[in-house]
């Protein structure tokens, strides 16, 4: 047996063990990946004994809101992520494909049939013991790998255990996310690089507004439709930082003295200070994505596209993430996690799902897959796999572990997280090239990722 894998014995059978906390999308996928590599898993799920504010059933992998797993196309990064998962034997993708309902090019599922099927597959898997219990401490003695996948609505007890592990400063309780656009889609004939008073060099893209443009934008913003606030999310809106539309409602000038203040900025095209300025900050390195500074919002996604495209320079902006404000428990992964999803401070502890700072059903399940693969390798005494950044799995893990820790906010998968492809080719061809490259890169590591998989469940 390995240097650090623990072996348990019953009768003649000897097997390494692992623990997974949380039977959501990430935890179910992680448990499955461990089990199919012949690791004996204890999967802890507190429902239905203790419910979260958003779940309604005791089923595993319950979809708490939409029944859509988004695009299925390889011209879309989430479609690519799903295809990679299929090729790596994902339980979540298999159950989603089997419970699919018609939804055009998206993959939508019959939500009850989907989570029932995941539950049945886990319950009937001989390598998994499903334990219906709230976990209050992070178990494990350093030999047994533990995957924490307690989700955005993790129970208070486990939150306190996580904060003891990672430090209270590195654990957050809500998203206040501003939209992100691709650098490529910004019209630089209408905006300019620079920092206030010239301090900080070309750190920001500045979108200058005339008085007329500002007034039209303000009108659209205060009358746009917003998302419904659920009771458990009220705290966020009233105690957290303020949504841009809420601030705008305080008066026509409020934004000009807030995030749209023009002070310290001169438009090189006019040589004058603009009436108002929207600033965009670099979101990643190399800079392919930009976030709209101070634009945390609860506007409906369609409304964000309509209203924020009124900003000069953003008329054709491609949004890779829309703004949201909701309850969400997540750790500061850039500070505490490695791209293998192991804690920097403790090799045997892995994190997976929304709690790592990935955003979305598919992204959560995909991170569960990576954590499951690496926890299995840990249990078997093998070194972990770092998925290449050219793959959607690798790009996601790379982002959460290398993003700016000071401004870390959860992220959906998108092509902007993957190394760009060069050449003067159409946008759509670039996406196809990135997907082809990803599947090729995945093929190269398939042997090592699928090492130890046994079809004996
Ligand atoms: C209200 C809300 C709506 C969302 N809507 C969408 C959407 O429409 N589309 C989308 O793509 N994403 C959505 N998300 C984001 C995210 O994709 C989902 O939350 C997703 O379920 C996250 O997967 P997960 O495995 O990380 O967490 P979960 O699926 O929540 O799984 C975590 C599991 O851990 C269990 N658990 C918690 N604490 C303990 C404990 N101490 N002991 C044992 N078990 C525990 C929970 O009961 C839960 O089953 C939404 C999030 C929220 C909060």
What's the topology here?
Layout: E1 7-10, E2 13-21, H1 25-35, E3 40-45, E4 68-71, H2 77-87, H3 91-98, E5 100-101, E6 106-109, H4 111-123, E7 128-132, E8 146-148, H5 156-166, E9 171-177, E10 180-182, E11 192-193, E12 204-209, H6 211-223, H7 234-239, H8 244-248, E13 276-282, E14 289-292, H9 301-308, E15 319-321, E16 324-331, H10 333-336, E17 349-351, H11 361-379, H12 392-402, H13 427-449
Parallel strand pairs: 2-3, 2-8, 3-7, 8-17
Antiparallel strand pairs: 1-2, 4-6, 5-6, 9-16, 10-14, 10-15, 11-12, 12-13, 13-14
Bound molecules: flavin-adenine dinucleotide.
Can you walk me through this structure?
The structure is a single chain. The chain has 457 residues and is α+β, with helices and mostly antiparallel strands. The chain has two domains: 7-174 and 327-449, FAD/NAD(P)-binding domain, CATH 3.50.50; 180-322, Beta Barrel (Elongation Factor Tu (Ef-tu), domain 3). Helix content is 31%, strand content 18%. It is built from 13 helices and 17 strands. It has helices at 25-35, 77-87, 91-98, 111-123, 156-166, 211-223, 234-239, 244-248, 301-308, 333-336, 361-379, 392-402, 427-449, and strands at residues 7-10, 13-21, 40-45, 68-71, 100-101, 106-109, 128-132, 146-148, 171-177, 180-182, 192-193, 204-209, 276-282, 289-292, 319-321, 324-331, 349-351. The strands form four sheets. Strands 1, 2, 3, 7, 8 and 17 form a six-stranded mixed beta sheet that branches. Helix 1 runs parallel beside helix 11, helix 2 (77-87) runs parallel beside helix 11 and helix 3 packs across helix 4. The longest helix is centred in the last third of the chain and has 23 residues, at 427-449. It is globular and about 70 Å long. The two termini are 22 Å apart. Bound molecules: flavin-adenine dinucleotide (FAD). Flavin-adenine dinucleotide binds next to helix 1, strand 3, helix 5, strand 16 and helix 11.
